[in-house]
Each structure stands twice: as structure tokens, then as C-alpha cells.
Amino acid sequence: MSFYRTYRPQIIDEIDNANVRAQLLALLSKDRKDLPHAYFFAGPKGTGKTTAARVIAKLFNCEKSTKTGPCGKCEQCESIAAGTSLDVIEMDAASNRGIDEIRQLRERIGLSPVSSAYTIYIIDEVHMLTTEAFNALLKTLEEPPSHAIFVLATTDAHKVPPTITSRCMVIKFAKASKEELLHALQRVVKSEKISISDEALQRIIEVADGAFRDAVKFLEQVSFGKGKIEIAHIDSVLSLSTSHNVALFVSFLYGKGADVAKALTHIHGAVSEGADIRSFLIDVLQYLHKELLSRVSEKNISPDTKNIERIIHLLTRAYSELRYSPIPELPLELAVIESFQAPAPQAGVQPAAVASVPPALAPKTSTPPAVPPVAAKPVPPAQHAPPVAVPADEPEVASLGLLTQEKLLDHWSDFITATKPFNHSVAGVLRSSRPKSVNGGIVTIEAFYKFHQEKLADIHTKQVLSDVLKKLFGEKVKIEIVLGKK
Ligand SMILES: [Zn+2]
């Protein structure tokens, strides 16, 4: 059985969502017969609505209920947990079967429960009901038989007529907080004896986006291997799974996890998996839009909030440039690079981010970025480097066309700037090197120092250079490095 089902909270105390737990506990002060007969659960997917609905079912049918609510152990509680209770009827209004079941609802509602005191009808995605079905439901809610209990759940509360919700006790399911998610994950980690670093747990929490189900499912997904789960493993799994792509990608754009190289690697990964850049960009913008609105409504105007605003501008521009771009991912990549390069209000994020290199591209023998790259010529300070993104009104980079030596010479400094996010010191070495020839898909770069030649000739470095040229000119080339005479 999956972790999510195995570790689904069974009693009120186990419910991870503090607000929901409190509201259910408050019900215990009343006699069962005085409890509301209809409940309306509203909230995003994966926030525990079905779990809480089953706890409600137990609340009514548990044989050994205590001061803390249903016992979770009696025959009734166990059959409800297993989904085998004949008196708990779960319907999904979004499915065809659900529609049929709701049609039959009015006929069967008069029937007494089979083996319990109450029949509990759980209708999931209730907003999907047709008008007729709503009307039928409303009639039932107006005069429910004393043994019938309704739990209506929805991810889209505003689509449910107020005539329905006003007859229910409404419980809102907010997205889970980080603490609540941690609480839920730790329960699984402990029982399954999973070894996982705190950092890795935090990463799962970040990408779960407030959904218990996603967090626990993801923990299960990464816990198959042996040994301790580290954050690198999480990230590599994430880059392959599409559902969390957007949250992970956004985590690379700003804040503590900001890292231009990881963001670019992520785009590369998405493209190679066949992701549609347009819809990916829309998803990212929607995500940032929500984030921005929630920060503004919380009056959280931190440097990060300003940064989000700026990233939204840049990505919106990238979106408008998409249709003219011969390489679909190019505008997005340029926007990402620019978001890191232009002077942001908080400078703290940038050096760390720019210095790191995507694992796949990192030269194994790379010099630490702290070493001054070139001794031969004065190197302009990094912050004065021109932004790699060409302004929107000059879509030049996107249409540079076939690579020739002249073009490469003309755009040598663009090439260096575009290399910088991947590897600072390589960019420095390029500054004192030059393109010697472009011929038959081979770009020959001339270095003038032996150690420069060696650095550029590193197989990973050549891959980076080739990738950057592909981005700029749309052409896949091989890189050769020769040692020239000064
Ligand atoms: Zn029980």
C-alpha cells in the first residue's frame, strides 16, 4: 500500500492540518445526534479533505468513541479506513459513475444504514454537479433523513451555489504550512525508518506546494534506493518529474535557492523531455503571479517580492518574444540570465548563484571561481559586463543565423557573457583567447597560454562552450582548442 494511504491520519489527533483538527475537535463537545448533518470542505487538492471526510464518518459510526473522538480501531473505524464500509458512500462528481450515483442518491437516501447508525455520503468535486443534480441535492439537504450525513468536498468552492453551502458546516482547508507538512512527513520517516537529510526534507516541502498528498507521495518516490536521501538526489528526481517542475524551477529564480545554472539546467531538462516552452512559461508565470499576490496581500514587500515582480516582467517579455524565436527556449533562458545579472536590490543572492555550475556541465578540474581568471589583460569587473540578453526591440541574438568566423568575432563578447553563468573562470579565459576559425561545424578557439588551452580543452568545458554557441547561433558545433603564439 502506498505511503499516503498507509499513513493517512485515522483519528482527529493525527490530522496534520491544525485548523481542521481544531474544528473537528470542537464537534466533540456535542452529542452525535446534535451534530450538523452536512459538511462542506473547500480547499486545494491534496490538503486532506478526503481524509477528514472519513474521520467525520468515523465520528458518527465509531463504536468506541472517546473524549478525543473516534477510536480508529473498532470494526466500524477499520472498515471506514479500508474503504469497505457499506454505510460510507464515496462519490466523485467529476466521474461518469459519480453522476449516476448521484442520480440514484435520492432513491437510496431513504434506506436505513446497513450496519451502522448513520449513512455518510461523501461527494468529492461537488462543484462538477449539473444544475439538476444540485437541485436534487438541495432537496435532500433541506430535509435529510435523520440517518444521512453529507460531506461535500470541492477544490472550487465558488462554483457551488450558496443555497448548498449555506446548509452546511463549512470547513476551509488551507494549503498546508511548512510545519504541517514537516509533521506529516516526519510521521512517515519515523515509521518507515527512512534516512533523509533535513535539507532534503525541506526541499520536498518546498515543492509540495502545500499539498500533503504530493509531499508524502514524493517522499515515497525518492525513498526506494538505499542509504541516506540527500538533496542532490531529490533535485535529480525532480528534474525528471513534470508535476513539480514549475515549483522547483521557481525555487531557482529567487530567494535562498536562487541559482542561475540550476535554472538553466532545468530548462534544458524540460526541453529535452519534450516540454512545451509556451505552456511551461505560462505555468511559471501563473505560479509567480499567485506568489506575488499572496505576498502583496500579506504586505510582505521584501527584496524577494521586488525580485518576483521583476522576474514576472522579464518572463512576460520572454513570452512575447517566443513566436519570433527560432529556438523556443532561448527567450526564457535570456530572461533568466538577465534576472540574475542586472543589479538587483539584494546583491547577496547573486555571487553564490552565479558561481555554481550545473552538475552535468561542471568541469571536474575547475579552478575555484575565486582565482582571478586572467593575468594577461585587465578584466572588466563582472558587474560592468553587458547583460547577455539583447533588449526586446533588437531580436538580434535570436536570429544570428549560421555561424561564421566573422559573426563569432562580432559576438565574441556576447559569447563570453553568455558563458559566464556557467563558469566564471572559463569566461575569463575566453577573454584572452580568440576564435581562430569556423569550419565544417568545428569552431577552433586559439588560446595563448598553455594553462588556458588546457582549461578550455577540458571535455566538460568544451561541452559548455558548444552549448552556449548553440543557444546563441542555433547551430551545434564541435569545439577545438589550439595554442597560438602571442
Ligand atoms: Zn472506532
| Order of SSEs | HHEHHEHEHEHEHHHHHHHHHHHHHEEHHE
Order of strands across the biggest sheet?
A: 2-3-4-1-5
Q: Considering the protein shown, what is the CATH homologous superfamily of the largest domain?
A: P-loop containing nucleotide triphosphate hydrolases
CATH class of the largest domain: Alpha Beta
What ligand species are in this complex?
zinc ion
Count of distinct structural domains: 4
Distance between the termini: 69 Å
- What name does CATH use for the topology of the largest domain? Rossmann fold
What do the pLDDT scores average to? 82
Low-pLDDT stretches are 344-399
Task: Draw up the topology in text.
Layout lengths: L2 H4 L11 H10 L10 E5 L6 H13 L13 H8 L5 E5 L3 H13 L10 E6 L6 H12 L5 E7 L7 H4 L3 E4 L5 H15 L5 H11 L3 H11 L8 H8 L6 H7 L8 H13 L4 H21 L5 H19 L8 H12 L7 H7 L49 H6 L1 H8 L4 H8 L2 E6 L2 E6 L2 H8 L1 H15 L4 E6 L3
Parallel strand pairs: 1-4, 1-5, 2-3, 3-4, 7-8
Antiparallel strand pairs: 6-7
Helix pairs in contact: 3-4, 5-6, 8-9, 8-10, 9-10, 9-11, 12-14, 13-16, 14-15, 15-16, 19-20
Bound molecules: zinc ion.
Task: Give a written overview of the molecule.
By secondary structure, the protein is α/β, with parallel strands linked by helices. Helix content is 48%, strand content 9%. It has four domains: 3-172, Rossmann fold, CATH 3.40.50; 176-238, Helicase, Ruva Protein, domain 3, CATH 1.10.8.60; 246-356, Zinc Finger, Delta Prime, domain 3 (Up-down Bundle); 396-483, GMP Synthetase, Chain A, domain 3 (2-Layer Sandwich), CATH 3.30.300.180. It has helices spanning 3-6, 18-27, 49-61, 75-82, 96-108, 131-142, 162-165, 178-192, 198-208, 212-222, 231-238, 245-251, 260-272, 277-297, 303-321, 330-341, 349-355, 405-410, 412-419, 424-431, 450-457, 459-473; strands spanning 38-42, 88-92, 119-124, 148-154, 169-172, 434-439, 442-447, 478-483. The longest helix has 21 residues, at 277-297. Residues 344-399 have low confidence and may be disordered. The chain binds zinc ion (ZN).
